[in-house]
Amino acid sequence: MPPKPFAAVLTLVAGLGLTTAANAQATAEAILAGGCFWCVEADMDKVAGVSETVSGYIGGDNDNPTYDNHKAFGHFQAVLVTFDPAVTSYAELLDIFLRTIDVTDDGGQFCDRGPSYRTAIFVADEVERETAEAAIAAGEAVLGRSIVTPVLDAPTFWPAEDYHQDYYLENSFRYTGYRFACGRDRRVKQVWGDEAYRGLDN
After folding, report:
1. Which residues are tagged catalytic?
2. Beta strands at 119-123 and 76-83: parallel, antiparallel or unpaired
3. Are 53 and 29 in contact (CB under 8 A)?
4. Residue 151 domain-assigned?
5. CA distance 141 to 144
6. Range(s) of the domain holding residue 50
7. Is 15 within the bounds of a domain?
8. What is the pLDDT of residues 23-52, one digit of tens each?
9. Nearest CA-CA partner of 122 in 75, 164, 184
10. Torsion from C-alpha of 74, 100, 122, 171, nearest 10 degrees
């Protein structure tokens, strides 16, 4: 994958021997499921402070899932997002994420149907759970209806195959055609109106 700007800076600092405890804590992680992981990765890469996104699988019944078997074993497609909480907080990241998905659909997302394409926020501890639940409550207040995206304890996240990483950059023509045909952006704008994709650097 091509290096992301913030990751490159951290690499440079480490190479100069300037890594400190503060530097080591300069990033945080979130695991977000929002349908096709190519699309979630593309959207989250537009959030200020995000340094890396990794497509993968989570929540199923087998170890080392693959694209060919992840659906059979109940995994979600998800994205591990590494970000600088001094630039965009975890709460802000979740607010942005929710506005990039159809939070009213519990059967998949857009043209992708089935359990692997459901939405979810995977949390590492109670602090993250409370933050996620607050983000969902705030979103419900904006929409005036229930959000079906669950907050789930995070089991092991398994990175997807290399060819899925940065797919939207490496295969931009196919990706753009898929996203348009799937109706993702149209539906998100129907659900969220002016709130859709708020917080993304377009």
Report:
1. 36
2. unpaired
3. no
4. yes
5. 5
6. 25-195
7. no
8. 456 899 999 999 999 999 999 999 999 999
9. 75
10. 60
